[in-house]
């Protein structure tokens, strides 16, 4: 066996040696360069149409073993073409072909193991009309017209499985598509053992590429390491871990592309930690222009996959993952440098349906100065109107953003927090935020803010923002919800106010204020569990546990429309002052509203509910008000055409007050109000309960006054019925408070200066201010007064009616009891002119003591001085009227009246006068001079008082008395003793100068007229008239 | 003696009737220059009848006022019309009856004896008190109610 193998080996070696020898002989003896070169030249002359040079051609065996090689020393193809970058198409020092001769000779199949070009220079050019300079080979002859003289290739097919090109310069210029490419120092190696295993390696320096005037590469280094597979049947090209290097940047590629009518692409590209700054430097100008304002550094890593078809209308889907680490960035428009920039994001790009394009940012963060921001987001519709659902977190040092502040503003502090955002970019840029959702919460620390003369400090707070407002307090404020919680807030304005808020919550809600909506709605709420203190120039206020809400809805652009406004204000305690106004309220609560009337949008309607426990208020030193409880419900409708306050504002008021004390300037008396409950509108004023004490008076006033509005407009009368109940009333005090400004028929002096008619003028005394009765008033006051002081009299149990009607003040059948008697008074008071006041009265006194009568009404003593001589019970009736001056002095010439005095069981008092008279009339005085009865009638006329003759019986004596006396206390009386003697005496003069003389009797003995004359008859008739008319007015009960 | 008797008789003879028309118009009190009286005619104002048991009087109106008391003639009109200051008057023979008016009191009679009535002078007496007046020219106040 061994020997057989030895023999076989010797035979094989001999065969190979023989073949090698034959090869050598063929190559070096038979097929020498001198023999081959002409052959090749000849072939080239027939194949190549342009100018060319072929150098020495030789065959190689040993250097290309086991393949046979064809080496051509120097090839030069020259094809001048106008516009071409060079006439030389190809120039190379050497071309070497290593081929499989066996396949060539047996199967006319040229299998080239390697094609090597050394030091090549190639210039390919296409002119503007599409003509190229490499069409220098003869085209294959038409087989139907085959010519025997035509050259035919010695092979039917060719395969190159390897090759390498070293080139000094390779250029490609296409003027038609404006492409210019060039490479220097090119080294290309191609190995294709089979189509499944193709390896392309390329290295080139100074790579240049320009397309359509855009330079995409210049002075680049290019490297390709592309293991690939090729399927020419399906035209599928596969890459396995291919790598493309541009300068220092490597791209790993994996995937495949099938190129038929369409291109099916499935390719993955990955780049790792590229230096962003260097990448930006490589960007072509058109792209670099977008980033010219950006200076960025960092490491960029990207992995992207393209999967899909490429057609005229279809593009593959692209999925990419991008990372940026250790990044810094600076944007010219921003005065910040962002450091520690990191990005970790995925993108899904669908160019066929841009709406499906999305990105997921797992994290992006950056730091600038002392502030940090980070975010994560999911972005949909990336290439169109992108929508982001993002989470943002920030730790902001406010001074870092001072460049955005106005020049006159400064601030320090920190804001830490985050927000969630769901918004479209178009909505954000156009501020159409109605579909935007934002929820954020930030902590504010050590905020110190100043602007001009204002400053604010907020040591700690929390800001919460929500758009839309998920829990609106009003359905209109459904867009913004903003809350600020702070433990302390201080705000001050130099020369203005200084406010301190402790533990405060501020809550604001609005509708979409960024849109041009016709209506604007806003709600605000301020609450504090501590206090708010505000101080300023002449101002101080302190409110404990305030709760303030305000809501407004207004129409934009319509200045006539009344905005709706509603506020509630409540405090536990509120105290403060403003200039001369001071106040303190305990548990005040105010609910106030303003809106437009239903009938007219331009008419404002106000309403308020006000309640408070203890209130103490003071204005200056003179005005003080305090109360224990007050509740007011008020409503007002504003009509500007009204000429008085109540007509302008048309208030409707329900008022309740307990335990109030009031002191007012120009109001002499102190007012105490234990309780008051009333309602008011311009139609009626109803006092349901009122207990008031004014000065020395106390009263309870209840009732109703109607037609107030029409009365103020002077279109109607003021009607009213009130009941006045009092324990003690000082009428003098009350009248001085209620006086009108002018008499009923009085005109101001300035109106009468130019008047030609005779008018009553206010030439009256300007100093006296009597009570003047208001006009157009029909008021009835029913009184029940236990005690009253009227002028200098004290009366008890006063009951009756007082009414004002037709310009008169009437006291109707006012019955009362004073010390002396039962009294009934009907009085009339009228003020046609300040200095011409009418007073008329019916005054009846029953069961009166004469001495008390005189002390009560001293004027009685003036009228009937002889009464002072009597003691006992009497009945007194007087009807009188007169005019008074403004000082309430009597105008004597206007005095009219009648008086009747009836007394019984009287005692005639001793006096010097009586002694004188009794001597003359020869009275015998008893121990007690009793008078059975006396009936006196008198009339008052001007200054005269006429005493009608009357008869008096004193024991056995009967006398008649009559005469006149004057208001100056002079008198002229005639006393006629009728029984037992018939003698007379005249008593004349005054009490200080009395003249008592005997006189002729003028009265009949039976007290019938001696002379039947008209006067005496009329006197009797008149006395009766007077008695009857006076007594009929007495109210019998 | 006879002459004395005649003198006495004649001296005690006083006129018993007077020309009523002399009363019409304004009179000023000789003792008080601020005191005026005015007697109206039946055409200037209403007429009235005052009936007492003893006699019936057909009257016209008049008024008086005292400016020293800060009363003006204008005060007698308006709400003061036919009130205090007004009277109904009747001149019958030598008796001038004035029925004083008021709001509480009406037709209070005051009977004056006329001593003298000329176109310039008026002299009346009541209760032994004599009042003399002199006729004055004044712009008549319109009778306004």
Fold and architecture overview:
The complex is a heterodimer of chains A (1037) and B (145). Helices cover 13% and strands 57% of the residues of chain A. The longest helix of chain A is centred in the first third of the chain and has 29 residues. In chain A, strand 50 and strand 51 form a beta hairpin. Chain A is mainly beta. Among the domains of chain A are: 134 residues, no CATH class; 171 residues, no CATH class. Chain A is rod-shaped and about 215 Å long. In chain A, strands 24-25-28-29-32-33-36-37-35-34-31-30-27-26 form a 14-stranded antiparallel barrel. Chain B is mainly beta. Chain B has one domain: Beta Barrel (Lipocalin), CATH 2.40.128. Helices cover 7% and strands 43% of the residues of chain B. Chain B has 1 helix and 9 strands; from the N terminus they run H-E-E-E-E-E-E-E-E-E. An 8-stranded antiparallel barrel of chain B has the order 1-2-4-5-6-7-8-9. In chain B, a hairpin with a 3-residue loop joins strand 7 and strand 8. Chain B is globular, with a radius of gyration of 17 Å.
């Amino acid at each position: 066996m061994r020997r057989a193998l030895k023999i076989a080996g010797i035979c094989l070696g001999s065969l190979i040696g023989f073949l090698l020898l034959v090869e050598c002989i063929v190559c070096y003896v038979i097929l020498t360069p001198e023999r081959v070169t002409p052959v090749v030249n000849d072939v080239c002359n027939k194949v190549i149409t342009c100018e060319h040079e072929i150098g020495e051609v030789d065959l190689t065996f040993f250097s290309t073993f086991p393949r046979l090689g064809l080496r051509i020393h120097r090839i030069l193809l020259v094809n001048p073409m106008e516009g071409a970058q060079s006439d030389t198409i190809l120039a190379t020092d050497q071309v070497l072909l290593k081929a499989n001769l066996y396949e060539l000779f047996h199967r006319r199949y040229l299998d080239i193991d390697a094609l090597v070009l050394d030091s090549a220079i190639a210039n390919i050019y296409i002119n503007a009309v599409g003509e190229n300079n490499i069409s220098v080979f003869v085209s294959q002859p038409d087989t139907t017209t085959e010519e025997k003289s035509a050259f035919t290739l010695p092979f039917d097919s060719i395969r190159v499985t390897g090759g390498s090109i070293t080139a000094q310069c390779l250029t490609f210029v296409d003027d038609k598509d404006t492409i210019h490419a060039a490479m220097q120092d090119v080294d290309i190696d191609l190995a294709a053992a089979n189509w499944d295993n193709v390896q392309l390696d390329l290295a080139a320096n100074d790579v240049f590429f320009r397309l359509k005037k855009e330079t995409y590469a210049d002075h680049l280094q290019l490297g390709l390491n592309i293991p690939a597979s090729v399927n020419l049947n399906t035209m599928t090209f596969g890459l396995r871990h291919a790598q493309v290097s541009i300068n220092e940047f490597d791209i790993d590629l994996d995937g495949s592309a099938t190129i038929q009518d369409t291109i099916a692409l499935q390719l993955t590209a990955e780049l790792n930690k590229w230096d962003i700054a260097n990448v930006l430097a490589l960007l072509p100008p058109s792209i670099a222009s977008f980033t010219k304002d950006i200076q960025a550094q960092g490491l960029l890593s990207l992995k992207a996959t393209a999967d899909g078809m490429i057609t005229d209308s279809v593009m593959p889907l692209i999925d990419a993952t991008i990372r940026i680490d250790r990044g810094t960035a600076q944007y010219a428009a921003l005065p910040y440098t962002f450091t520690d920039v990191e990005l970790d994001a995925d993108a899904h790009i669908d160019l066929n349906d841009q709406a499906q394009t999305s990105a997921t940012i797992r994290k992006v963060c950056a730091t600038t100065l002392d502030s940090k921001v980070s975010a994560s987001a999911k972005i949909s519709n990336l290439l169109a109107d992108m929508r982001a659902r993002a989470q943002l977190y920030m730790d902001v040092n406010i001074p870092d953003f001072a460049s955005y502040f106005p020049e006159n503003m400064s601030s320090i502090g920190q804001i830490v927090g985050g927000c969630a955002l769901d918004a479209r970019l178009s909505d954000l840029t156009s501020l159409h935020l109605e579909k935007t959702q934002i929820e954020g919460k930030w902590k504010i620390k050590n905020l110190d803010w100043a602007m001009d003369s204002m400053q604010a400090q907020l040591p700690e707070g929390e800001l919460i923002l929500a758009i839309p407002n998920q829990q609106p307090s009003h359905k209109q404020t459904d867009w913004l919800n903003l809350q600020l919680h702070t433990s302390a807030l201080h705000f001050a304005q130099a020369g203005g106010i200084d406010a301190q808020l402790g533990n405060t919550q501020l809550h604001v809600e609005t509708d979409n204020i960024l849109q041009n909506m016709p209506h604007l709605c806003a709600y605000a709420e301020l609450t504090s569990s501590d206090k708010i203190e505000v101080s300023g120039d002449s101002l101080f206020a302190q409110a404990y546990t305030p709760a303030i809400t305000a809501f407004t809805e207004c129409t934009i652009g319509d200045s006539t429309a009344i905005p709706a406004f509603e506020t509630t204000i409540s405090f536990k305690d509120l105290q403060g002052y403003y200039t001369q106004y001071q106040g303190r309220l305990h548990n005040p609560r105010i609910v106030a509203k303003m809106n437009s009337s239903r009938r007219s949008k331009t008419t404002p309607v106000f309403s308020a509910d006000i309640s408070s426990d203890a209130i103490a208020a003071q204005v200056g030193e003179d005005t003080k008000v305090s109360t224990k409880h007050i509740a007011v419900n008020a409503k007002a409708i504003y009509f500007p055409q009204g000429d008085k306050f109540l007509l302008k504002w048309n208030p409707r008021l329900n008022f309740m007050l307990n335990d109030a004390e009031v002191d007012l300037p120009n109001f002499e008396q102190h007012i105490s109000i234990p309780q008051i409950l009333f309602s008011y509108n311009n139609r009626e004023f109803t006092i349901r309960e009122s207990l008031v004490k004014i000065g020395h008076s106390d009263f309870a006033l209840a009732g109703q006054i109607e037609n107030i509005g029409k009365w103020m407009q002077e279109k109607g009368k003021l009607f009213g019925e009130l009941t006045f109940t009092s324990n003690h009333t000082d009428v003098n005090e009350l009248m001085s408070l209620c006086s009108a400004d002018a008499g009923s028929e009085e005109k101001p002096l300035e109106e009468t200066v130019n008047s030609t008619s005779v008018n009553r003028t206010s030439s009256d005394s300007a100093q006296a201010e009597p009570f003047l009765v208001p006009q157009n008033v029909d008021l009835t006051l029913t009184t029940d007064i236990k005690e009253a002081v009227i002028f200098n009299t004290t009366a008890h149990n006063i009951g009756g009616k007082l009414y004002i009607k037709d310009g008169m003040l009437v006291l109707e059948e006012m019955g009362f009891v004073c010390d002396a008697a039962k009294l009934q008074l009907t009085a009339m008071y009228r003020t046609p002119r300040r200095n011409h006041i009418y007073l008329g009265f019916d005054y009846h006194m029953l069961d009166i003591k004469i001495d008390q009568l005189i002390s009560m009404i001293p004027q009685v003593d003036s009228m009937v001085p002889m009464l002072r001589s009597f003691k006992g019970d009497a009945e007194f009736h007087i009807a009188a009227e007169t005019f008074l001056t403004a000082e309430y002095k009597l105008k004597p010439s206007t005095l009219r009246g009648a008086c009747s005095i009836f007394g019984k069981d009287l005692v005639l008092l001793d006096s010097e006068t009586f002694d004188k008279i009794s001597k003359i009339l020869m009275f015998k005085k008893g121990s007690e001079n009793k008078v059975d009865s006396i009936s006196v009638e008198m009339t008052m006329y001007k200054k005269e008082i006429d005493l009608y003759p009357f008869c008096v019986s004193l024991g056995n004596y009967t006398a008649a008395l009559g005469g006149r006396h004057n208001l100056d206390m002079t008198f002229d009386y005639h006393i006629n003793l009728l029984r037992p003697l018939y003698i007379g005496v005249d008593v004349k003069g005054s009490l200080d100068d009395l003249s008592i003389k005997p006189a002729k009797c003028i009265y009949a003995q039976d007290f019938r007229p001696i002379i039947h004359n008209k006067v005496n008859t009329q006197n009797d008739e008149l006395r009766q008239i007077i008695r009857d008319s006076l007594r009929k007015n007495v109210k019998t009960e | 003696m006879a002459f004395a008797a005649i003198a006495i008789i004649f001296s005690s003879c006083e006129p018993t009737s007077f020309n009523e028309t002399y009363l019409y118009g304004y009179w000023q009190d000789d003792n008080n220059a601020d005191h005026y009286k005015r007697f109206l005619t039946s055409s200037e104002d209403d007429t009235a009848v005052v009936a007492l048991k003893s006699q019936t009087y057909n009257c016209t109106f008049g008024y008086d006022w005292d400016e020293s008391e800060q009363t003006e003639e204008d005060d007698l009109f308006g709400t003061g019309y036919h009130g205090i200051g007004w009277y109904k008057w009747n001149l019958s023979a030598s008796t001038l009856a004035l029925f004083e008016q008021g709001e509480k009191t009406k037709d209070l009679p005051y009977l004056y004896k006329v001593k003298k009535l000329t176109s310039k002078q008026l002299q009346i007496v009541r209760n032994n008190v004599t009042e003399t007046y002199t006729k004055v020219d004044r712009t008549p106040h319109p009778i306004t109610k």
